[in-house]
Amino acid sequence: MSGTRRDPAGRRREIVAAMADLMCHGEPKITHRRVAQHAGVPLGSTTYYFASLDDLRSAALEFLAEKVDADLAETAELLDASDGSPETVAAMFHDYLSDAERVRTELVLYSASLARPELAVVSRRWFSGLVDLLSRLTDRRTALTMAVFVDGACMHAALNDEPLDLPLLQDLTRSLMTGTADRPRLRAPEETEPRTS
Amino acid sequence: MSGTRRDPAGRRREIVAAMADLMCHGEPKITHRRVAQHAGVPLGSTTYYFASLDDLRSAALEFLAEKVDADLAETAELLDASDGSPETVAAMFHDYLSDAERVRTELVLYSASLARPELAVVSRRWFSGLVDLLSRLTDRRTALTMAVFVDGACMHAALNDEPLDLPLLQDLTRSLMTGTADRPRLRAPEETEPRTS
Amino acid sequence: MSGTRRDPAGRRREIVAAMADLMCHGEPKITHRRVAQHAGVPLGSTTYYFASLDDLRSAALEFLAEKVDADLAETAELLDASDGSPETVAAMFHDYLSDAERVRTELVLYSASLARPELAVVSRRWFSGLVDLLSRLTDRRTALTMAVFVDGACMHAALNDEPLDLPLLQDLTRSLMTGTADRPRLRAPEETEPRTS
Amino acid sequence: MSGTRRDPAGRRREIVAAMADLMCHGEPKITHRRVAQHAGVPLGSTTYYFASLDDLRSAALEFLAEKVDADLAETAELLDASDGSPETVAAMFHDYLSDAERVRTELVLYSASLARPELAVVSRRWFSGLVDLLSRLTDRRTALTMAVFVDGACMHAALNDEPLDLPLLQDLTRSLMTGTADRPRLRAPEETEPRTS
DNA sequence: TATGAATGAGTCTTCATTCAT
DNA sequence: GATGAATGAAGACTCATTCAT
């Protein structure tokens, strides 16, 4: 009955989580009232725990960054327990991209960096964390390439509400990790139009 | 009488461009006054030409979409005039990613899509336009893969204020387009700790 | 019917005057709403014309300072047209102190200087203006003394809602300006208690 | 257990003193938090000891009034122990006016009276106390005149952060108490522009 | 047509006050 | 008895929008 009240840390976290959630859903007009309502706390609480709405926003972004770190760590474990084959990696990518929430989080983090340069640090941490992770499987340069691709796949997933299909991811990882594609892909520009020449 | 005045269409466009510019720079609080100031027009103009701020915002996004289309068309021409080799394509990517403004525009368009689903159409148009473009060079599936990578590279460029380096882009395009990498990249997990040599 | 509206300067002045009036009456809690109500204008007007409540307060103090200057100038004219005798000066003091509004204004100006050192300039201008004025009648040192006394008399009048009585003012001016009192005033401390010793 | 705690009366007094101090320094926005911080006590204490902020404010003004009374009493003693000569009185005035804190206190008390008529009682008590005091040295009417002057000198000191110079005070007290100035001070208006000499 | 004065709705923020602990 | 978490009322301030000119 009273467990909920008088739990400063918990309440604070609830508010932050609510703000983060709204941000990840692209809410265009986030106000104290909206956050309070979403968190199920009275208006005053949002201002009691945070000196300004901007502070709350910062806390939420930090919160998201931690979530990203946690995801990264979790993925690292899975990776270590796996065989590290392109197929497995592709499957993990697919799983990752299937989590709409997570995918949006990344987009939010990225676009927030635009307006607030100090946030770029967080986004870059995510990115370099991913590169580090992939470096366990391949050389650093390829890991970087793969990470860039994953970012693009995130955008794509955020935009289409579904991840790229698994076979494509498999092809890509195989191609990048082994340097061997299953078939030649070059096509001359002319080829596009004419059939019979 | 001076030529600058009495050009309704021009003034309207100035306002739209100002709004678009502010949006691309991540301005957090865009108001009529801010846009008017940025465009160098009186406050009243912004409300005279647009029924609401939201209308103006929509016009700006349309404006950006057109810009994207124009970029796409321009790139298409360049591509047609080129030899279509992976190196050339990589160079074009590099050029494209070097334009910070453009790269930001894409990120803005993407994150705006999050908040306003109707915009996802615009973003998807950009993406499929890119795929169509690349399809002139390779099969549709590879083109899709490349487009995803370009999106990722855009995010990366927006975040780091500089594009990925050209060699990496070259490796990637070559790898995807020819299915041939210059060297094997797979590294077995075991390899990290050599057993018997 | 429309003369009142669309008169920016006039409306601005109304608001300033309302604020000044409230300040002079020692209103403890001056808010936008209170000023708006007192000036008979809508709430928005008070924020439209002044970037902040503090700006409005500053404008009001400037307004009061101008009023003080005007009073000073007016008094100067009266003084020039007078015979400059102590009696006349005393009478003018009495008139001055009889204006409750004016007397309060001075107190407000003084106490505002406490909280906002930049206002001390205004208060000092009033004071030195008074000294200059009195310097036309007597030496500067005596003028200073008289000005200090007038300040004290202002405080007294503000506190008691009525000026010091005329005879006292006459005695004082005569005493200071001529250096001649009508009777000796020294009384030995012992004299207070014992009658017969 | 350390002696500092468990001293309700002492803590109460600390809070009151902190409030009084803030008031005397012209703090524009006095809140519970501000007082608590200034007094070095927890926020709760300020509401625990005083039913409302207004109560606390009243207590502080009472506190200041007592301080004024104490000053008055102390001055009375000094006066009784002195020779009561104008020079001595002037020196005492000078001492009094040299205490910036005290001088501000009076101004605060006066201006507070404006907003809260019930405080005028306190201010008048100070003033009549001063008159009583000076009445031990001279007739009541002159004492009143001197008290008014001292009030003016307080304003002047508060505004300039330093008291009037001693010689001026000496001249004034001598002039008022003996009715004898060291030199004639009248200057005829004509004198400004000499006619025929 | 074009502009800026005008206004009130809505937001952030502060804070007196209450009250669980 | 003391304290700080908690909250809603209230104020400063912003600004979209309206409208007189």
In short:
The structure is a homotetramer of 197-residue chains. The first copy, chain A, is an all-alpha fold and 197 residues long. Helices cover 71% and strands 0% of the residues of chain A.
What does this structure look like?
Four copies of one chain form a homotetramer. With 197 residues, chain A is mostly helical. Helix content of chain A is 71%, strand content 0%. Chain A has nine helices and no strands. Chain A is elongated and about 60 Å long. The C terminus of chain A is likely disordered. The interface between C and D is large, with 63 and 65 residues. The structure holds a DNA duplex (21 and 21 nucleotides).
Shape of chain A: elongated
Q: Provide the CATH architecture of the largest domain in chain A.
A: Orthogonal Bundle
Q: So what's the CATH class of the largest domain in chain A? A: Mainly Alpha
Tell me which oligomeric state these chains represent: homotetramer
Largest sheet entry of chain A: none
Strand content of chain A: under 5%
CATH H-level superfamily title of the largest domain in chain A: Tetracycline Repressor, domain 2
- The unreliable regions of chain A are 180-197
SSE run of chain A: HHHHHHHHH
Distance between the termini of chain A: 82 Å
Number of distinct helices of chain A = 9
What structural class results from the helix and strand content of chain A? Answer: mainly alpha
| Total domains of chain A | 2
The greatest inter-chain interface is formed by:
C-D, 63 and 65 residues
The overall pLDDT of chain A, averaged over residues, is 86
Number of strands of chain A: 0
What would you report as the Rg of chain A, rounded to the nearest angstrom? 21 Å
